[in-house]
Amino acid sequence: MTTDALIYDLGDLALQSGETLPDAKLAYKTYGELNSAKDNVIVLPTFYTGSHYRNEGFFGPGRALDPAHHFIVSINMFGNGLSSSPSNTPAPFTAARFPNITLYDNVRAQHQLLTDGLGIDQIALVTGWSMAGCQSFQWAAQYPAMVKAILPFCASAKTAEHNIVFLEGVKAALQADSVYDDGNYATPPIKG
After folding, report:
1. Is 1 a domain residue?
2. What's the pTM?
3. Which of 38, 41, 49, 58: CA 20 to 30 A from 181?
């Protein structure tokens, strides 16, 4: 398992909300080689709380996703601590002031990385687990001419009500922590 990542500078990124994320960055890592036809690209975004190195368990020699045959681009979502996040974005967007980021924003930034940064104009497959699977659906909706296939697993195109309740429970635990301070942590929450 490796934790090294490349950083792609997106510049000031206009968000779906109308806000701008200044000096936005995407962390990513590639595995395998891009073939001459550039048609062996697999996009593997990260899942909630995941990172590119945690995605390494989804591929390997002799497996369906094999770096010997595919050019795998594992892209870290905004907010995961490696790409632009509340913990690494300068003021005024630190901590609780970090802007709301949507799947649309993540996929648009990933598209910019792939097209402008890596010179890719077609994707054989976008796949991922959980929130990465949700990004697979978003890729297909946002860039249907570019994406040949998607394989979301343990994901849905719309968040189910029971999942929203679960996420609200996690949020409530964090908000109950004595150091919460409306998300402006001076120390990490350990009781919530």
Report:
1. no
2. 0.91
3. 49
